[in-house]
Structure formats: structure tokens, C-alpha cells
Write a structure and sequence with these properties.
Elements lengths: L6 H9 L16 H16 L7 E2 L7 E3 L4 E3 L12 H10 L6 H4 L9 H6 L4 H11 L2 H21 L3 H15 L5 H11 L16 H7 L5 H19 L10 H8 L4
Antiparallel strand pairs: 1-2, 2-3
Helix pairs in contact: 1-8, 2-7, 2-9, 7-8, 7-9, 10-11, 11-12
């Protein structure tokens, strides 16, 4: 049963000063309708809404991208600069009562060592089974993404000097206070992270939600969020190592942030 206070209501109460910041660290719950709606928008953004897109491995990357949020899964024994999010999703699904096959539940990393091996196995029984699980757990994956947002604000505030915290907090709540603000906040944190990890930087500059909130000006909240996100993502591409060819992704990224309205 859904709790009567949704994520959005809790954020508004925080905005109004009715609860201390520590309340924000409590578990949050989306209603079934919210979870399904946000989950399907995430699925459309990352996978084009297709079942086949739920299991991907992009060219030039050393990890699989899985689920409606293209959660990152590194091969066994490998790591990279980006935060690995698929194992926590698996743990969340298991805690929520989803039965996972042993090859997933007992894994110590992505079982495919590289993109070539993954693509060669794309039509295997294992990946068909995984796609079925992911297609059937869209609302749960949306709740998992929302839980990441729940923890984002304290992390972001801890990552900036005291004199910059007020702007970050104000812009966060300005977006949250809009009628459709939950989707862009959940989506961007899932899409590009909180912006607090020191390894998620090019030339010392990040591209997460923190950097977007820092870049926003004082205009209408969602318009400012879209503009700032476009600036931050364009800067990331300009700063990226040339061999990554991130310019190929920028049009899709900019199209995605234009949906924040």
C-alpha cells in the first residue's frame, strides 16, 4: 500500500520549512501511478521504449547499460570512472520480492568481459531472460531511481562550500515545487548523476545535477533547469577526451533535457 505522502509532497513540505533536512534521508515512495509514469518516461529516454533497448552496451564504453535507466554494470574485475548502478538495482529488486536467476543473483560483476562478447550473446537465453525481468519491473526501477534522488541533496550540499549551499538548495526546491518537477529531478540524477564524484570530471568540471543547479539563474525553474543542463552537457562534450567522441551523443542528450517541461 502506498503511503499517503508522496515524494513530491515531502519535497514541498521541505520547501516550506515544515521538516528539517534530515527527514529527506528517510525512504520515499512513489504512488503506483507516479512510478509507472516516470518509469516509462525513463524507459523512453534511455531505450526508446523498446524491450531490446533494456540490454545495451554502447560503443567505446567498458560497461553494459541495463534497464530503463541504462544502469551501469562493469565486467568482473573491472571498474571505471562512472558510478556502477546496476548491482544496487539488483539488490533493490531482490529486496522487493523479485526472483532473480542464479546467474544474475550470484554474479560478482557483468559476466560478459567486453562489448563484443555481449553483442555475440545478445539473443541468448540469459539476455532474453534478463530483458523479460527488466520489462516487468518498470515501476520498481523508477522507485529505485527516485531513491537515488532522495539521497542526492545532502550529498550535493556536502560537496560545495557553505556559501554556495543556499543557491543549490533553493534551485533544487524551485524545481521540486513545480507541478512536473519530480520527473526532471529523478531523470537527471539517473541520467548524469549527482555531480559529487571526483572521478566524474573532465578537466576538473562535472556534469551532474549539482553542476546544473549551480548554473541555473533566477528565471522560471524548469526553463532554467533545461538551459543549465544543456550548458553543462555541452561543456562536458567540449572537455571530454577526443577519443571518446562524445559529440555523437550530444544531440540526444539535448533532446532529452528539452523534455523537462
Amino acid at each position: 500500500m502506498d503511503r499517503p505522502r508522496t515524494v513530491f509532497t515531502l519535497l514541498i513540505c521541505l520547501w516550506c520549512g515544515l521538516f528539517p533536512l534530515s527527514v529527506y534521508s528517510q525512504s520515499v515512495h512513489l504512488s503506483d501511478t507516479q512510478a509507472d509514469k516516470i518509469g516509462r518516461r525513463l524507459w523512453q529516454n534511455e531505450c526508446g521504449g523498446t524491450v531490446s533497448g533494456l540490454t545495451s552496451w554502447n560503443s567505446g564504453e567498458n560497461f553494459a547499460s541495463l534497464g530503463i535507466g541504462h544502469f551501469i554494470w562493469y565486467p568482473v574485475g573491472q571498474r571505471g570512472p562512472f558510478e556502477e548502478s546496476f548491482p544496487p538495482l539488483l539488490a533493490y529488486l531482490k529486496e522487493s520480492g523479485v526472483t532473480l536467476p542464479p546467474w544474475v543473483a550470484d554474479s560478482h560483476g557483468c559476466p560478459w568481459p567486453n562489448r563484443s562478447a555481449f553483442l555475440a550473446d545478445l539473443n541468448s537465453a540469459r539476455l532474453r531472460e534478463l530483458r523479460t525481468i527488466l520489462a516487468n519491473t518498470v515501476p520498481l526501477q523508477a522507485r529505485f531511481a527516485a531513491n537515488r534522488l532522495e539521497a542526492a541533496l545532502p550529498k550535493m550540499l556536502a560537496a560545495v562550500p557553505v556559501e554556495e549551499q543556499a543557491k543549490v538548495k533553493q534551485n533544487f526546491y524551485r524545481v521540486a515545487a513545480t507541478s512536473s518537477g519530480m520527473y526532471p529531478l529523478v531523470d537527471y540524477v539517473n541520467f548524469k548523476g549527482e555531480g559529487t564524484s571526483p572521478t566524474e570530471r573532465y578537466r576538473g568540471q562535472g556534469w551532474g545535477l549539482l553542476q546544473v543547479l549551480e548554473t541555473m539563474n533566477d528565471g522560471p525553474a524548469l526553463e532554467e533547469l533545461r538551459t543549465a543542463a544543456a550548458q553543462v552537457l555541452t561543456r562536458r562534450v567540449h572537455n571530454a577526451p577526443p577519443e571518446r567522441h562524445e559529440e555523437r551523443w550530444l544531440p540526444g542528450w539535448l533532446s532529452r533535457v528539452r523534455s523537462y517541461q
